[in-house]
Design goal:
Layout lengths: L3 E11 L2 E11 L6 H49 L8 H7 L12 H5 L3 H11 L4 H8 L3 H15 L4 H11 L4
Antiparallel strand pairs: 1-2
Length: 177
């Protein structure tokens, strides 16, 4: 091959396998010795390592750019929230909230509120008022674990991910945003 009496091939490898081959030959009558073979092998190994590191550096750079873009988006959204009109419930508003259920809203299925048991409605009323699990347990004379169970069931029935979302949906549904 290539008019050579002596020929050697070394694989260029990365962690996923062989990505190429390095060929070496000597002109007729001059054999490839161990030193040339080992040098070609070392070159192929070094090239594979450098190639893999370059690929990893590219991937890391892409991931860094994605993270920077997402952080910038979060910063823009946080800036919008900084200027948002936020109001907190006073005691008279909290009393109005205790009158479950309200008018239907797109975010919350009215049947979901109706599916709450009497005890779940009591827990939800206190939850909407901002009571902690301990405060709810104390007022309803039940254990904190029972409160947590009721809250989990309420969230599941309302399709909310957390307490804040459940409260938001209820307030939106009753027009108290």
């Amino acid at each position: 091959m290539l008019a050579a009496d002596s020929y050697v091939v070394a694989p260029i490898t990365v962690s996923t396998g062989v990505i190429g081959l390095v060929h070496g030959s000597r002109p007729s009558g001059d054999p490839v010795n161990v030193v040339v073979r080992d040098m070609l092998g070392a070159y192929a190994c070094g090239f594979g390592t450098l190639f893999e590191r370059a690929m990893l550096a590219d991937r890391l750079s892409e991931q860094k750019n994605v993270i920077v873009q997402r952080l910038q988006q979060e910063a823009r959204e946080a800036e919008l929230l900084e200027h948002a009109d936020v109001s907190f419930l006073d005691e008279t508003s909290a009393e109005q909230v205790s009158a479950l259920p309200g008018t239907p809203h797109d975010d919350l299925n009215p049947a979901a509120l109706e599916s709450l048991t009497t005890r779940e409605r009591e827990v939800f009323t206190l939850l909407v008022r901002g009571a902690s699990n301990a405060e709810i347990a104390n007022e309803l004379v039940i254990s904190i674990f029972t409160v947590k169970t009721h809250v989990k069931k309420i969230l599941r029935k309302l399709g909310a991910m957390n307490r804040s979302e459940a409260i938001y949906r209820y307030l939106a549904m009753t027009g108290q945003r």
